[in-house]
Amino acid sequence: MTERVDFYVLKSAAAKQRWAFACRLTEKAYLRDLRIVIVNDTLADAQALDDLLWTFNERSFIPHKICQDEHSMDPATKVHLTVEPAAHFSADLLVNLAARLPAHWERYSRIAEIIDAEDECRRLGRERFKTYRDLKLILKTHQLDETATV
Length: 150
Hints:
By secondary structure, the chain is an alpha/beta fold. It contains three helices and seven strands; from the N terminus they run E-H-E-H-E-E-E-E-H-E.
């Protein structure tokens, strides 16, 4: 059951800034021994984030896996990148980089929505915020600049 949804609102409209923040957030959660699922809009986005997770910080190591379907989810891996979360799989944190409300969102105790300054991203983020609010979930908004750390 979802306990809380955090909205991280960036001032930058650059997708790379969203991905960099997602990497830092994932690293922090991984170091706390949490299981993380990162939802992307496309497989190409997941692959780009996969590359960035290996290189964004030369001092960190975040073992992760791209999962193209529910059968490729590995319980031994702490971080999964996907386009659609598996119905039978749950984790401690769902990081949403997709423009939509992820399927099976209620299986995650916390959700992180990362919103950049691009107009459509903001509009869709507001829609998800309203949906979560209507579901009576605890919401917290964090306004961040380009240099923000988690």
